[in-house]
Amino acid sequence: MADGIPKRNDVPAWRKKETGVALVFLAPALLGFLTFYAWPTVRGLYLSFTDYDLLSAPEFSGLDNYRRLMEDEVFWNSLWVTLQYVFINIGAQTVIALGLAVLIHRLTRSTVIRGVILLPYLISNVVVALVWYWMADFNLGIVNEALGWVGFDAISFFGDPDWAIPTIAGINVWRHMGYTALLIFAGLQTINRDVYEAAAVDGAGEVRIFFRITLPLLRPVLALVLVLTVIGSWQIFDTVAVTSQGGPVDSTRVIQYYIFDQAFTRFDFGYASAIAVVLFVILAGIALAQLKLLRAGESDQS
Known about the structure:
mainly alpha
């Protein structure tokens, strides 16, 4: 300080102390991020340019893994299978979750009902997959028993290529729709009820209110939900690993399972890393496109 005028670079002692305390609390999270996210990402990017089998040192191979990937029919099939799963899962999950959220918002605020809806999400993916795998068993599963009671033939849910991906998508819709519904419900609570009352006074019906008021005002929340669910859907692995293991005839070999197979079954870590890098680029592009197209940073609420 000179002539009684404080300098801009003078920082009060209390602020320095607060900054130090904040850094102490942030340090564990930062260390975890660097250890489990940043370093594996950098390491995976490096390995994608190498020939590495875990038993010997990585050998730099340039773009060989990416050239091989472009000619790999199994990779392109896994990409197509993953796309099928994403469309089925996102379409069904979003519609069901949105309907549940609106019903909860308009009919009840019971925390018990919210807890019941969220319950499947609190169960491990592996446990959910195993339970549904047994329930949908061709010979002994209760689902096929129920179909037999109403006169339908038994369905090989995990053994028929036409049924396998829709079945896996249905399992994950059942598990995640409650969580997605509560995210949307939280968004519904931010909408001013005066808007609904004004629309009702003007004679608008429930359907018109939903499409003209609720959906537009929910856009930022729906954008967030879609980004989270789409990215999560592209990373489907555990349900496939527990139930179909990529079969029958590669009809459920999603891209994450293909990465696992290349890395931990064939020990081709370089090629698996190249596929993982491509998946990362795809997910980043999809997320950016969604945020841009859905105008996630804008809201119609004033």
